[in-house]
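Entry 14: structure prediction run for FecR family protein. Input pasted below.
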Amino acid sequence: MTPSPELRKLIDQMLADGGLGKVETSRLEELLKDREALRYYTEVMAQESMMAEALEGIEGAEKTVRFPVRALALAAAACVVFGVGFFSGREHGEPPPAVVKSLGVQVTGLMGVEWEEGGAPDFPAAGRVAFRSGLVELTYASGVRVTLEGPADFSVINPASGSLANGKLVAYVPPGAEGFTVDYAQGKVVDLGTEFAMDVAGARAEVGVFDGEVKLHLPGDEPWSLFQDQAVVHHGVGKMGLTAVPLDREKFVRRMPARDFRWEVTSHGSREVEFDVTHLIWKPSDYRAIFKWMEGRDAIVVRNLELRRDGKVVASDLHEGVTGNLRLVRDNVFSLDVKPGDFKRGRWTLHATIDTYPREGALAGENSPVASVGLLQFEEGLVSKATAEDFIGKWSYHHLGSHYVREFHADRRLELFVNDKLQPEAFPGFRWEVEGGVLKIGVPKMANVYERHALRDRDTLIFMSNHYGTATRVTEK
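Run finished. Output tokens:
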């Protein structure tokens, strides 16, 4: 593109010793919302960065370079993250501040993530996520949802695009967000209102379309259309390097998988139940299975839990637990720890033996109807490692048409609000405590009965002994 005089002037001023003031920085940010302006900006930054490297170590170079050291760092970051039309996949840095503010992208899901060395990134400030295993979901302000499967390395370029250096990606692009673009080393994919997938490994890239249409842009060629159920592998230069392949729908994770599995018991007698948890196990970790009753007059007994990989037992917890109404819940959390030497990709299944809890009085009898429905919640992470500080704050959930907020105070008080009204009689004088990652608090008028809560992550609260859905942390505005 031919840059506008205003854009050239602002870039020159940024690289000069004086730098940009607040007004100029804000204006540069507005100009960089245009994709072509952004590309010109990154080209300049790349050239400035390479000039600095070339002059490094030459005597007197610091006197001849016209831009300050802080601009060099900024230039290198911009060069590496945004590239000049494609992505190297080897070097990454932070996008410049003017771009960071306009990214409009949030991490909306994490599962089984093992980060690259250095730990979790400061996203969105870093503009890049690189991880060894697991799933990361990013959501753009436009509604575009990107699901990444590790090992993966993805950078956000701007509010309508990103770059995939390696890994698997599925992008869902809603109406109104057409034009979303993902660059890779040898080209780019431009959406036309679709759900598409990519698998990039070195110089090889696979692109497939679940729904709709995409345009595949290759250097030196006209854009090439891919339609629903079509896929290609790109392993060369231009269209000559394309090979049509069947779309492998089973290869990609299209959405963050749910951790909740429904179970139902309608008859007497023991039975073994099986749950496929393959997409919930991405690394060695301390996993927990929580059996939670939701409705029905019967409680159930759970025992002999086994976690198997391709039919082989990897971890087990053989203790007996009970889940039912609040009075009957006990020991309903099962530990299934996968050690580093036992972890491999495969089909992971959870097996358990369940039976109805013995009845008393008129309800007893093998011929009486049985009714019990609930959830298995398969967790890892904070569910076993949370501290008291992790629970402090307000937690919101809905139940049977009413809105509830529980506030756990630092002094260990608990307050309950129903439809914005404080319920002072709910937990009068009670104090909560945390042991083994589980928050416990007594129930009024029910001796030796406790509510138990765990954290799926820092913003999701699990009711382990109540039949409510999960609660989300209330973020103060």
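Notes: The chain has four domains: 5-82, 102-251, 260-368, 385-473. Will compare against the previous run tomorrow.
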